[in-house]
Amino acid sequence: MTLEQLRIFVTVAETLNMRAAAEILCLTQPAVSAAIAALEEKHATRLFERIGRGLELNEAGRTFLPEAQGVLAKAAQALQTLDDLSGLVRGTLRVVASQTVASYWLPRRLARFASCHPGITLDLRVCNTTQAAASVLAGDADLGFVEGYVEEGVLARHKVGGDGFGLYVAPRHPLTNRPPRREDLIKAQWVLREEGSGTRNHLETCLHSRFGLDLTELTVRLVLPSNEAVMEAVSDGDLITAVSHLAAAPRVRAGLIQALDCVLDERNFSMLRHKSRRMGHAAQAFVEMI
């Protein structure tokens, strides 16, 4: 049984006339008659009674008609869903982002997309860079946005932005009076983000290129799971940390923390997508927008 056979049956049942049904369906009358005959023969069930030159639905036909109409309605609904998805009338965009990107770079862009496409549901998860990459790799997210370096062959990585990066302390910290030296950083007490975070990974790269230091040479007193947590710890003690200038700016303006006189490499924000998975219409529209 095909949708075309169901469509022909329903049209004949509603008109009770082969010729009229053929005209509505843009088919020949023999084609319509053959489709009805094939349907009846296939299932060994007559659906119409031929009364003279007219047609009448018999009991089987009257029972089958609402079922056939229901199937055609479901098929039309399925086609409408596909049309809606292609036209961005409905759908879901699953995004995963590391903390700095999710807090300071992504919100305005998501808000603009939501305004342009109100029928699209936005699903945002926030984690660290390693976790974000794993989500895209596993197919749990359509797009990932991270600030850390990701080395994974099946993930395509595209630069979409960036920000400055620096070392921060409380305003009364002794290192605020002069640029820090290598030995100062070794003697300092540190609070860092967790392993796998883009912030921690970038600090490791900067310390190595700028001072020839490894993280293992630092005295790390605290490891905390967010930028806000490490900055809060810094503002109330003698600790030192590294965070994005974007993340630190509100606390700097409030006089709670201060950047050290130490130039570190800027870092990139990257978009991740799986090379082998075709992007949906919502993801494509978001990528085009940014």
Automatic annotation (TrEMBL):
GO terms for molecular function: DNA-binding transcription factor activity; transcription cis-regulatory region binding. It holds the Pfam family HTH_1. PROSITE patterns: HTH_LYSR (PS50931). The keyword Magnesium does not apply. It comes from Acetobacter senegalensis. Coiled coil: none annotated. Keywords: DNA-binding, Transcription, Transcription regulation. The gene is lysR. This is LysR family transcriptional regulator.
